[in-house]
Design a protein that fits this description.
Elements (H helix, E strand, L loop, with lengths): L3 H18 L22 E10 L9 E5 L2 E5 L3 E8 L1 E8 L6 E7 L4 E7 L5 H14 L5 H16 L7 H5 L2 E4 L2 E4 L2 H5 L10 H18 L10 E3 L17 E5 L2 E4 L1
Parallel strand pairs: 1-7
Antiparallel strand pairs: 1-4, 2-3, 2-5, 5-6, 8-9, 10-12, 11-12
Helix pairs in contact: 2-3, 2-6, 3-6
Length: 259
């Protein structure tokens, strides 16, 4: 028989056992996140864009897109930027030979589509000069040769040794002794002006040359970076001649291209 003094501890143990067995919540812990709820994650969206280049058909120029902290280089005329929070963003798109596009785009919870048109930075007069030069320099040359001639003009435009506008590159002169010469022989002898654009046959030749111009503007460069060219069969074989001392890149048709 238990004495009253010894029965009290046993009674307390029995009570605690019954409480625990019953799943009483008096002894459960408070979840850590009840008093400190997690922050709300911002909704993220996607920007898709299509870049159009005036005058370009087929081959697409390379463009660089800047938006927020993102920088995307694309040669397909399309781009996608993911993970953008809702808000208004400045956007800047650059491409060689085109005016820079600058604008703003508003991003919301849904995917956003942007359609941009890039304008050429050459004037209509410069483009006409360019096509006339390519026609005069590349008469009888294959399409690759015409594009290479056009690309070499643009390479010269990008080279700090030459003028920084297309018209000035085409019409540039050099002084030899007391005489002034144009850099390009069709400008020197006037052949550049022989095309009469009101004549159907001449207009067709002009359009063919213009296609080569636009191909070069779009980034095609069969000349492999050349800034000049000459016809080896029509130039003195003297190895000390200036053009024969320039680093060659490739020979296409009748033209040897050089850096």
């Amino acid at each position: 028989m238990l004495t009253p003094r010894r029965s009290i501890p046993l009674l307390l143990v029995a009570i605690m056992f019954l409480v625990l067995a019953s799943g009483c919540t008096s002894f459960s812990t408070v979840p850590r996140d009840v008093d400190d709820p997690p922050g709300k994650t911002p909704a993220l969206s996607t920007l898709r864009g299509v870049i159009n280049f005036k005058g370009i058909d087929g081959f697409t120029p390379t463009a660089t897109v800047h938006i927020g902290s993102h920088r995307i280089v694309t040669d397909s005329g399309q781009f996608t930027v993911t993970g953008l929070e809702a808000g208004k963003y400045d956007i800047r798109i650059t491409a060689d030979h085109f005016h820079t596009y600058e604008g703003q785009v508003t991003i919301n919870s849904e995917s956003v589509m942007l359609n941009v048109t890039m304008d050429l930075r050459f004037t209509p007069y410069e483009m006409e000069l360019f096509a006339r030069l390519v026609w005069a320099e590349a008469i009888g040359e294959p399409e690759e040769g015409r594009i290479a001639v056009a690309a070499s003009v643009l390479n010269r435009l990008a080279d700090p040794r030459y003028p920084n506008t297309l018209e000035e590159v085409i019409m540039e002169t050099v002084t030899v002794g007391d005489k002034v010469y144009y850099q390009y022989s069709p400008v020197l002898d006037g052949r550049i002006w022989e095309l009469k654009l009101d004549r159907e046959s001449d207009r067709k030749q002009y359009d063919i040359a213009m296609r080569a111009v636009y191909a070069a503007i779009a980034g095609q460069d069969p000349s492999l970076g050349a800034t000049g060219f000459f016809n080896p069969d029509k130039v003195s074989p003297d190895p000390n001649l200036w053009v024969r001392q320039q680093p060659p890149t490739i020979k296409i048709g009748n033209h040897q291209f050089f850096l």
